[in-house]
Structures are given as structure tokens and as C-alpha cells.
Specification:
single chain; about 300 residues; alpha/beta; TIM Barrel; eight-stranded parallel beta barrel; globular
Length: about 300
Amino acid sequence: MNKLDLSGVGVALVTPFQRNETKSVDYTALERLLEHCISNGVNYFVVNGTTAENPVLSVDEKQLVLQFVLKVTAGRIPVVFGIGGNNTHALVEELEAFNTDGVSAILSASPYYNKPSQEGIYQHYAALSAASPLPLILYNVPGRTSSNMSAQTTVRLAKNFGNIVAIKEASGNLDQITEILLERPADFQVISGDDNLTFAMMALGAEGVISVSGQGVPEVFCTMVNHLSAGQWIQARAAHLSLYDLTNQLFEEGNPVGIKALLEARGITTAAVRLPLVEASSDLKNSLIASLEVLSLV
């Protein structure tokens, strides 16, 4: 199986909604967002991740959004699709039935709510590995799943399954991340899942990031990651620090509430979200506009 290069900036896409009664998907805005990202240096897209509000999208909407993204990108950059959950058997069936045409890899978060043991997490991903027709990217995000995938479990999976090619690490634990970097196989990639830890993680040896804020301000975010990849630490640090406050603002009222408000301020899509999420407050919207002014992006 060909190894996928996940270095640089991947973007966990929002799903733009219209401001109507059903909050229907706004495909015109989605195309604007895709072109905005590609023209400013994003390296690949992640469709149907948490940032996409996937729990409130229907099966048909998920497929339509994926096909639209594939059509618009037209092979210019890779597309990764998110398939995750806490019912291993159901996920195996979904993977076996998945239409892989045009998709480069699957991103799958560690099971949420069940709080499995490390052995349970390992066996879950072992089953997905056997079923997946595409490379698999692990996703450790304890803040959403309520359980942490240890460095030992990550490395064990990386060494035992050739189609498990990377991890999106959002534990926020730099000691854990360092252990993975020290023990991983040579061709296993470590990707930041936390925008404000990207500088630190890439300094330690991570290859890149799957970002939320990268779609809102790709002009600055991609520049930062490019500097990091080139070992230009002073320039990268300046870009990182310039984004620090903005990135924190994006998560003040939850994700993707903040990034959608930022994208609205930039004229790309509305800030509309589906319940149980609610739209960003006026205070947050004003704070984001002020941050964009500091960056000279409005």
C-alpha cells in the first residue's frame, strides 16, 4: 500500500450551512472555502471530521459533501475522509462498503463514551485495519472521547499494521507525543491535532498538522508550517505567536462555532451551526474581527 504524505497543513473542513430553517448545506460557500484554502497553500483536506459537525449530518449529506469536495479539488490535493464511532462492528461494515474512489485515507477517532481499555482500543483499530481498503490515520482526542490512547498503544499499532500510517495527536501531552516520536517506525507520521501546539510538536519532529484555524487564516498558518518544515524557527515563531490569541478565541465557545464565525467575518460562509450547537455570541464575533484586523486580514 502506498504511503500517504501527510506533511504540512491538512484542514479539518467545516460544513457551511445556509441560514434557513433546515440549515441546509451551502455548496457555493463550500466551494469558496476550498478554493480559499488551496490558493493559500493548504496541502490536503479532511472531510467529515468533528469540525464538520458530522454527528448532525445525514448519511446522504456526508456522501454529497465528500463527492462535492472531490469534484472541486479535482485531484489537486489529497482528500481524507473521517469514519469513526464507538461501535467497532458497525464501523467495520461501513469501511467494507465505503466507496474509496478519489479518497486517499481514512481518519478514525478512538472510540468515545465507552471508555475502553488500552487493549480494547488496540483491538478496535486492529479490526478497522483488517477492514479498511485505504491507509488509516489514528486520532487521539481525549477531550472529546473521554479516554486517552497511550503512546505504547499508538506505537504498537504503528508497528503491527502496515496500513496504519499516522496519528493525529490531540492529547496535549508533549511527553506522550515525544515518546511516540522516539519509538515510532520510520515511516509512521505524527500529526498535530492542536493548532497552538503545532509549533512545539513540529519542533520535536512531527510532520505537520490537521488544523481548524488553518482554513480561516491559511495565509498565516500555512506560512508558519512552511517555515517550520524549512527549519526557519525565528520566522515560524513570529507567525505562531501572531496566531496564538486568535486560535484560543476560536475554541472559546466550542468547535466549529468559532471557526464558522471567523469564516463569516472573512465573507466565506455564514456562522450558522446546527443544534445542539448555537451560533457564536456577538462578543466573540467582535473579538475575532479585531484579531483579523491585527493580522491585516479584513
